[in-house]
Amino acid sequence: MRLVDDEIEEVRLRLNVDVTVTPDSPPAPAPIESFTDMCLNSSIMKDIAIHEYTTPTSIQAQAMPVALSGRDLLGCAETGSGKTAAFTIPMIQHCIAQSPVRRGDGPLALVLAPTRELAQQIEKEVKAFSQSLESFKTAIVVGGTNISDQRSELRAGVEIVVATPGRFIDHLQQGNTSLTRISYVVLDEADRMLDMGFEPQIRELCSRGTLLCVNVYGRCELPILYHKHASLIEKVN
């Protein structure tokens, strides 16, 4: 059922969601009240049920429809709010809607995180919501692990890469992967990556012009990340 404007604002008020849309942009998509509102792939819905997700959290309710609409998003939410699933579930849905990944292809989606530990947590969640999908592959690319194994996995072709910026840039420079097929990018805890000195790497990735969806959780004032699609960025608190 399509919500009218007053109903949309009522739902946002109940969810305690604040949405700011950049000037001259169309209104943000309406929040969802159930995962069934998203028309997700049946395998993803199966995995959502397996993990006993019943009702979307506030950040999920608004961020998911924005992410699936292909619009850029700057989202701010506290730890424990379900923010990882808010970008993970639509990312998986986006990937399975693309043509299959072949050997030598770069990934369809990229998640950057500031630390190996956070990247591992994100990878675990990606795999949790894609476990029922056949031949769906996720690679984790971080320091402290065997780079040759990562090279082989990337060259074989994967749908999603979860990485720390430095190690991912290393693989790009070595020709082990590319950005040519990426159409969904997540910068998780981008404020921490900037604080840790990853600004050059983030700028390099943003300058490739392949960013379609940007989800950032942390501080909400990050002008460095506003790229050529800045007019579509939506801020969700």
TrEMBL record:
This is ATP-dependent RNA helicase DEAD-box, conserved site. Residues 64-211 form the Helicase ATP-binding domain. GO terms for molecular function: ATP binding; hydrolase activity; nucleic acid binding; RNA helicase activity. A motif (Q motif) lies at residues 33-61. Residues 33-61 form the DEAD-box RNA helicase Q domain. Coiled coil: none annotated. Keywords: ATP-binding, Helicase, Hydrolase, Nucleotide-binding. It comes from Artemisia annua (Sweet wormwood). The keyword tRNA processing does not apply. The lineage of its organism: Eukaryota, Viridiplantae, Streptophyta, Embryophyta, Tracheophyta. Belongs to the DEAD box helicase family. DDX21/DDX50 subfamily. SUPFAM superfamilies: P-loop containing nucleoside triphosphate hydrolases (SSF52540). GO terms for cellular component: cytosol. PANTHER family: ATP-DEPENDENT RNA HELICASE RHLE, ATP-DEPENDENT RNA HELICASE RHLE-RELATED. It holds the Pfam family DEAD. InterPro entries: DEAD/DEAH_box_helicase_dom (IPR011545), DEAD/DEAH_RhlB (IPR044742), DEAD_box_RNA_helicase (IPR050079), Helicase_ATP-bd (IPR014001), P-loop_NTPase (IPR027417), RNA-helicase_DEAD-box_CS (IPR000629), RNA_helicase_DEAD_Q_motif (IPR014014).
